[in-house]
Amino acid sequence: MDLAALGLPMEQVRNVWLVAFFIYLACCLLVEVAYPTIIDAERARKVYISVKGPPVEAVKKKIEELAEAGTLLTDYEEEKALRKAEQRLDNIKGSSITMDFGHSLLYIGACFVTYATFALYWFIVDEGSLLNALILPFLMVYLGARWGRRGWREARGFSPDERTLGMPAIYARTLGRLSVPFRRKLEDPRCQPCLVEGRGEHVMIVLFLQGGVFILFMYMNSLLNVTRDRYSSSDIGVPSILLSIPYILSALMLLFGKRTYYRFTPTVIERGRVFQPAKEYRYSDIEHFKIYPVYAEGTKPSEDMPSGWRLAITLIDGRYESFGFRADFTDYLVAHIAFKLEQERWADVDSPADRELLEKYLMEGRAICLTLGYKPANELTKKAARIASFRAVD
Predict the structure, then answer these.
(1) Exposed, middle or buried, 367 (CB in 10 Å: 0-12/13-18/19+)?
(2) Among candidates 325, 276, 280, 2, which has minimal Cα distance to 132?
(3) In sequence order, what are the residues at sequence separation of 6 or more whose Cβ sits closer than 8 angstroms to the Cβ of residue 364?
């Protein structure tokens, strides 16, 4: 089926596929050897400083630049900014066992799948779908390599999307050139697009977990027949054909799920979809916003735990979205909201004075939002109860 129907020399296809797989596996393992994920917290902080520079010194330099531009920060604001820079290093925890060895299981699994596919090759040609079977080991190695590189960056405090880090220069240049047609050139790295999850993605994830994972498990179980003395070819034929279903579900999940994105620029908010033009909103088009911790009710949120905070906005057309409060791509959104909280109006981007103030809020915006933009639910509940009781008396 499939490749066999094209009249290709199947023996040569098997040999070329096997050689290509081991070359690809070797390239990925060389990166693991040159840039291992294993690292402790102290060493990880040193690596971060060597690449990004001391965060405290960077903040001091920024404060001096603001002072030279005429924007003076108060002692409290300077102390808050310096403390935040120190916390950036404290938040670097190094790698974990899951991060160190979890992705290696995908490499091992890919080797087993390759061995079993090679041994059952002719059964798959005669009874199943060969293309699905040949692609699977490559996908497993790719996912393992991607997981490992993201883990390398996260363990050292870098953004997981900085693909030039944790990779040999030639790898980074090659990937950069290949991805140029799919990337938008940005002058300001803080304007990176933010992909948001939509209802379509949630539906596809449910379908993948229910159907795709079951079919993958069924196919893997069929590969175990390679260790038996007698093998029934029908055991591998149907699962290899059904293996196309997880591929289709994954493609649909990428196409219809993660295709909505936001970009926060100094002047406007862009909301777009892949292959469609972006719609622009002014920051004054934000009707409601809130900063809140993702904790159970009754626990006191901590400003030192950035992963526990979210920022949600409702636009003028009723669209509601929430974002990670500490994510770099929300810098301009946070700055405009901080401006609104302190100045009680939205910034006029055509005003030089307001643009200078926004530079200050780019540094202090998150501290201001946590101070002025978050109101614990229990306080609001008590206030509402008091108002209701007064109305009842009236």
Answers:
(1) buried
(2) 2
(3) 73, 77, 80, 81, 338
Residue 70 tokens, joined: 């005429």
Q: For residue 356, give the nearest of 60, 57, 68, 77 by alpha carbon.
A: 68
pLDDT score at 95: 84
Helix, strand and coil percent figures for the chain, each rounded to 5 = 65, 10, 25
Compute CA 49 distance to the chain's CA centroid, rounded to the nearest angstrom: 23
- The dihedrals phi and psi of 11, each to the nearest 5 degrees, come to -65, -45
Report H helices in 156-198: 169-179
DSSP SS3 for 312: strand
pLDDT at 111: 94
Instruction: Report the pLDDT value the prediction gives residue 367, as an integer from 0 to 100.
Output: 80
Per the CB < 8 A criterion, the answer to whether 14 and 121 are in contact is yes
Tell me if residue 313 falls in helix, strand or coil. strand
| 6 vs 245, more confident | 245
For residue 40, is it left (φ>0), alpha (ψ between -120 and 50) or beta?
beta
How many whole angstroms separate alpha carbon 226 and alpha carbon 255?
36
CA 333, 66, 64: angle at the middle one, nearest 5? 130
Contact 358, 69 (CB under 8 A): no
